[in-house]
Design goal:
CATH class of the largest domain in chain A: Alpha Beta
CATH architecture of chain B: Orthogonal Bundle
Oligomer: heterodimer
Order of helices and strands of chain A: HEHEHEHEHEHHEHEHEHHEHHEH
Strand content of chain B: under 5%
CATH class of chain B: Mainly Alpha
Distance between the termini of chain B: 35 Å
CATH superfamily of the largest domain in chain A: Periplasmic binding protein-like II
Number of domains of chain A: 2
Radius of gyration of chain A: 21 Å
Helix content of chain A: 40-55%
Number of domains of chain B: 1
Radius of gyration of chain B: 25 Å
Largest interface: A-B, 69 and 61 residues
CATH architecture of the largest domain in chain A: 3-Layer(aba) Sandwich
Helix content of chain B: over 70%
Strand content of chain A: 15-25%
Shape of chain B: globular
Chain lengths: 356, 608
């Protein structure tokens, strides 16, 4: 946070000096050579931004001479992205999106394709290198249970266990957003994790019917997950590994169970028509660097896409990250491409189920 | 009118007489132009997407209506909003009544109770309710301590959502009602009683009808605002309460199905406008500020009788203009401030009890928020663990928070000024004027409240990108003013309807020109409504988070935008610290105004 604040103050002062015209690309510092280049990066803000500025923004600025302006944008950037591209008013050069949104936005013509030819991709996980974006960090959706109720390792080990309210009685919380935990319902119903896609929506919702009366809270934000654990509001919860971990570090007595979890990429993209698309490609290439990714992953508990990063990360830290070998093999990848094409039906089906 | 003509010149009819509608059109014009440019045109373009022009297809509408899902959600949303509006009316009525009756020295305290929740972020307020309502929460523990065997499930269902939303919206109801009740001439009630009406029927048949403009306007404000809610329902409903605004936001922002999102919005807007029109019929068009300018309020038999008595009294006592100019004392001049007689003292105490209870209901969550802001933990915790000023330091030490707070204050102040000027001029035209298409224009003025904010946000983005108003103070203020105008129009027209036109007429008879009569007689009487409208506008802007997400640039972001940036990761106690600071500032302002009023009053009596 500290680093970020000082830069922000600097460029705001710069903007004031540059006058009213500098409202949109206010990164211009008085006296900075134009030739050095500009880059505007937006992200979800908060901890994410603090970690990314230490690992990528500031080191890249130092290494390349390109001045990086960064700031937070809306948590769901795709609506704003579309508005920008369609109004020919693209203010960002780089931003980050979840992988299914990368696929969706790419197909809708909102993104520049990534030019891998000039990038060093050694060590990168193959599924992180998408046509319209590069996975920076993986987040896992897994379950966690109260250690007050079950000793670590004695709680539910699978989604079938999570669904088993007799063997594991307790207050439960699942995701209420998007298309809900349909994959987990299918796993609970016995579908093997490599046969999940295309999702059998009917079967998933039938299985959801079973658990519905036992769900006390359907969460809608990441912040809510940690808060529910900290308040002792639930005993079993589905959540994002970073949020669950935040709850645990703040004192919630919970154990994270990686088995049968899913993982998705949060990745860098370049909006179509970005003013500094060339610098943007360079930045994305830089962000694949194993050392930088290790710095990132030591500041926020999301998994690096470059496997070589783990040679710079201590074991106990690595154990918290989704892309760390022993964790990764327990997880399955959400099929972002399939999802991008079927999201409308899935959301409609989920909405209908929730309303019914 | 004849008197007016005699008082001025015989020779030529005034401009106003020759063009009776021109003045009203002139007053309405700025509002109409403003909404056309900054609302109707961008929204129209956006809604056109639901027809997939130029190809024209209705497939988005077919999809929306193919299953009953969305209609069910719209129905649930409307039902919940109705319940919230009804609760606010039932609770708000006695509270507003009590505020008009309360001793002056209690006023700052009572107003404090009503207005304090306004300054706390919806987010932390929802969390305060979770703390109160959850299993083993404050309420549960209190019931256990009192050995009450009843342990209701209050959280994560409709009850919790209604409680949370009433808490947010009650101030709107109370302020709207107060603006009208304050102007009720209690001599009507007294006259009805002296003519033999028992107190209960005098209240129901005289006072209540006179306060109806406030009830209908307040109900409408709360009902329509409720429809747009989704943060409180999501958090307190535990995901069990579905709101249509959330569905629309998801379609537009996450799935980027703008056509389908527009189609859902158009259906919602059509349904709500339909309800508003039926509502107007049911409660009489005149209840909506569309009364013609010479009619007296509430044509009830008792009132008519009472009015006769009052007029006679006035005539006999030799009316002086000075008597009509309101003193700092609230209430129409010459009328009793206190609701009549010892016979209804029990009701007075009952009202006080309800008001006290409401005060507790409003204030306790705010106190919890304040307590949590001093927590040493890095998350919201109740009871707070440890004591720390860390979150205040975090706020004052961060240029990001401070810049955002500064920007938000500026934007909110601009919004308040702009919407009060545009909205009250419009309200005046609606209440006093008579022109073609008045009702249609009136309903159109309410649209910014009805159209889902996410739609307004995206549509405004396109317009502002062209006008280079993104990340700009004026851009935020212009967009927020669009949202605030309907509230100002509703509350100011309710107050205007409540006032006795004969006062203004009396002033003109005594030689004031209409403009002067307006500024010396009408304006001071509706001043509380203007203040309330300004406050609503200020709060609307200060709390606005959806449009802010779109219009912010990375160099200029408002406070709610910055708060929401962090939400994805955690609910940081900094938000509760900011809320507590705002509450503190508003307490200081309230106390200050109370002291100033008291001093002005003393000086006034000294001179007399």
């Amino acid at each position: 946070m500290k680093v970020h604040q000082s830069t922000r103050r600097e460029f705001i002062r710069g903007a004031a000096a540059a006058g009213a015209g500098a409202v949109l690309i206010a990164g211009v510092r008085p006296g900075a050579a134009d030739a050095a280049g500009q880059l505007v990066v937006t992200d979800p803000g908060g901890e994410w931004e603090a970690a990314a500025s230490k690992a990528y923004y500031l080191p890249f600025q130092q290494a390349s001479g390109t001045h990086v302006t960064f700031g937070a944008r809306a948590s769901l950037a795709i609506g704003q992205l579309k508005a920008m591209v369609e109004s020919h008013n693209v203010q960002w050069d780089v931003t980050d999106l979840s992988d299914y949104l990368i696929s969706r936005a790419g197909k809708a013509g909102l993104l520049e394709p990534i030019d891998y030819s000039s990038m060093d991709t050694a060590g990168m996980l193959k599924d992180a290198m998408m046509k319209y974006g590069v996975g920076n960090d993986a987040y896992a959706t897994i379950m966690a249970y109260s250690t007050k109720k079950w000793a670590p390792g004695k709680g539910p080990q699978s989604w079938a266990d999570f669904w088993d309210v007799k063997r594991f009685p307790g207050r439960r919380s699942l995701s209420g957003i998007g298309y809900g935990p349909m994959e987990f319902a299918l796993l609970a119903d016995g579908v093997p994790k490599d046969k999940l896609y295309p999702l059998d929506v009917k079967r998933a919702l039938n299985k959801m019917d079973e658990i519905k009366p036992h769900i006390n809270v359907w969460w809608t934000t990441g912040a809510q997950q940690a808060q529910l654990m900290l308040d002792g509001e639930v005993d079993l919860i589905e959540g994002w590994n970073g949020r669950l971990y935040a709850g645990i570090t703040k004192g919630a007595p919970f154990h994270m169970e990686w088995s049968q979890g899913s993982y998705e990429w949060e990745g860098w993209v370049i909006p179509k028509g970005a003013a500094n698309a060339k610098e943007a490609q360079k930045f994305i290439g830089y962000a694949m660097n194993a050392k930088q990714q290790a710095i990132y992953a030591s500041n926020i508990a999301y998994g690096p896409s470059n496997q070589k990063a783990f040679s710079y990360i201590p074991k106990d830290r690595a154990a918290l990250l989704p892309t760390y070998g022993p964790n990764l093999e327990k997880l399955f990848r959400v099929d972002a491409d399939w999802l991008a094409d079927h999201l409308d039906e899935l959301t409609a089906a989920w909405t209908q189920w929730r309303a019914g | 009118m004849a008197n007016l003509a005699r008082g001025r010149s015989y020779s030529r009819p005034s401009w106003r007489q020759r063009h009776p509608d021109a003045l009203w059109m002139l007053l309405l014009a700025p509002l109409a132009v403003y909404l056309l440019v900054f609302f109707v045109q961008p929204i129209g373009l956006f809604f056109a997407q639901s027809l997939r022009l130029p190809h024209f297809t209705l497939k988005d509408y077919e999809q929306a209506l193919a299953t009953p899902t969305y209609l069910i959600i719209i129905w649930d949303t409307l039902r919940l909003s109705f319940v919230v509006a009804a609760c606010c009316t039932l609770i708000g009525y006695p509270v507003a009544f009590c505020l008009t009756q309360a001793e002056r020295r209690w006023l700052p305290l009572l107003w404090g109770a009503v207005l304090l929740p306004f300054w706390t972020s919806v987010l932390v307020r929802s969390y305060a309710w979770i703390v109160i309502l959850r299993v083993h929460g404050i309420l549960d523990s209190m019931l256990s301590a009192l050995h009450v065997p009843w342990h209701p499930h209050l959280l994560y269902n409709n009850i919790a959502v209604v409680i949370g939303m009433v808490h947010v919206l009650l101030p709107y109801m109370v302020l709207t009602l107060y603006g009208v009740m304050r102007e009720i001439d209690l001599r009507y009630v007294r006259a009805a009683q002296s003519l033999g009406a028992p107190p209960v029927s005098a209240f129901w048949r005289v006072y209540v009808p006179l306060s109806m403009p406030g009830v209908t306007s307040g109900f409408l404000v709360v009902f329509i605002l409720s429809i747009g809610f989704y943060i409180t329902p999501a958090l307190l409903g535990g995901g069990n309460v579905q709101m249509i605004s959330l569905q629309i936001a998801e379609q537009i922002n996450e799935l980027v199905n703008w056509g389908f999102g527009s189609a859902l919005s158009v259906i919602l807007v059509a349904v709500v406008v339909g309800i508003v029109l039926v509502f107007m019929r049911l409660f009489d068009v005149e209840a909506f500020g569309l009364r013609s300018r010479h009619e007296e309020p509430a044509p009830h038999d008792a009132v008519e009788a009472a009015a006769g008595v009052v007029e006679a009294q006035r005539a006999a006592s030799g009316v002086h203009l000075s008597e009509f100019v309101p003193t700092p004392n609230p209430g129409p001049a010459g009328s009793p401030k206190r609701y009549a007689g010892a016979t209804i003292n029990w009701r007075w105490w009952g009202t006080m009890a309800i008001t006290g209870g409401t005060g507790v209901f409003l204030v306790v969550p705010v106190l919890l928020v304040a307590a949590m802001s001093f927590s040493a933990t890095s998350y919201l915790a109740f009871p707070p663990k440890g004591f720390s000023l860390h979150w205040y330091a975090a706020f004052f030490g961060s240029s990001q928070w401070m810049d955002a707070a500064g920007l938000s204050l500026k934007v909110a102040a601009l919004t308040a000024v702009m919407s009060v000027i545009l909205g009250s001029a419009g309200a005046l035209a609606f209440v006093r004027g008579r022109f073609l298409g008045k009702s249609a224009i009136y309903v159109a003025t309410l649209l910014p409240m009805i159209v889902p904010v996410i739609v307004t946000a995206v549509a405004t983005y396109f317009l502002f990108a062209r006008l280079h108003l993104l990340g700009n103070v004026w851009g935020f203020a212009i967009a927020d003013t669009v949202l605030a105008i309907p509230m100002v129009v509703l509350i100011v027209s309710a107050a205007l309807r409540g006032i006795d036109v004969s006062l203004e007429r009396a002033a003109t008879i005594l030689g004031a020109n209409p403009v002067r009569a307006f500024f010396t007689v009408t304006l001071p009487t509706i001043a509380p409504a203007l203040a309330a409208g300004g406050l609503f506008a200020f709060i609307t802007s200060f709390d606005e988070s959806v449009i802010a997400l779109f219009l912010s640039s990375i160099t200029a972001a408002t406070l709610p935008k910055v708060m929401w940036d962090d939400l994805r990761f955690q609910v940081d106690p900094t938000i509760s610290a900011i809320s507590t600071l705002l509450v503190g500032v508003s307490i200081v302002l309230l106390v200050l105004s109370a002291v100033l009023l008291e001093r002005a009053r003393k000086r006034g009596t000294a001179r007399l």
